[in-house]
Design brief:
single chain, 279 residues, alpha+beta, Glucose Permease (Domain IIA), eight-stranded antiparallel beta sheet, two-stranded antiparallel ribbon, 12 strands
Length: 279
Amino acid sequence: MQIIRLLVLTILLTSCASQRETAAPTPTEIAVIPATLTVTPTAVATSTPESSPTVEPSADVCSPLAGYTLPELAGIVVNPYHPPRLGSDNPHQGVDLAQVDAVNGIAVTGMTVQAMLAGKVAGVAADRFPYGNMVMIETSLDAATNASNPVLILPTPLPKKLPGGALTCPDLNIYPPEAGAARSLYILYGHMQNPPAVSVGDPVTCGQELGAVGDSGNALNPHLHVEVRVGPPDQTFPSMAHYDPSADYEEMAAYCLWRVSGVYQTIDPGCLWGSCATP
């Protein structure tokens, strides 16, 4: 009888140990999401991008993250450039950069964000969805192309205003520039840790500190969202917001102008650091 009791006890203990092992959580990787999107992506037929050879960029372009050289940035991209069809807000119109802790696999906050090109502040947002804490800097197109190596492949201005899309937008009384008209390069830095310390109109130097990596706005993990566009010069964006009931008319108009109007055309930010994907 004693032997039978021992056998039963052994079976019960083995069963409990098995249940505990099954219930243990499985480690997961960092969830990487589009930095600024909350709507369901629209299927778009696109060709697979081919990466051009990595080229040592010009010293006139500064790294957007302190502690990383320009060639090193390609290795910390956690969400690549994936432009949508014209007028759509999906899937990803910039590049997300993050430093991931090698021990626990978690993206970290606090890296210093720096201006990639000299210019002037064209836009700011203080904890407004979806970009969170954001700074946008305008640089003349001539200065941007002269600084970039290889030379930026710039989009041809659209011949006319795009029709309204699925995104709810105010009526935008602005049209793409005529061929040959002046244009500027705009770089947006999003999801920073704190509200901007600069104001619209402030001059900015290459490498100037703009803030720190955070997870403000529509960001599940700390990262820097870099978005680059070409469009009419001297436009300002005092704030922008969308997908949020608190977004007012002016903020929604600014977001729609920047994102889906076709007036400001997106290019791959990686082109500025020599790692450019072309269709």
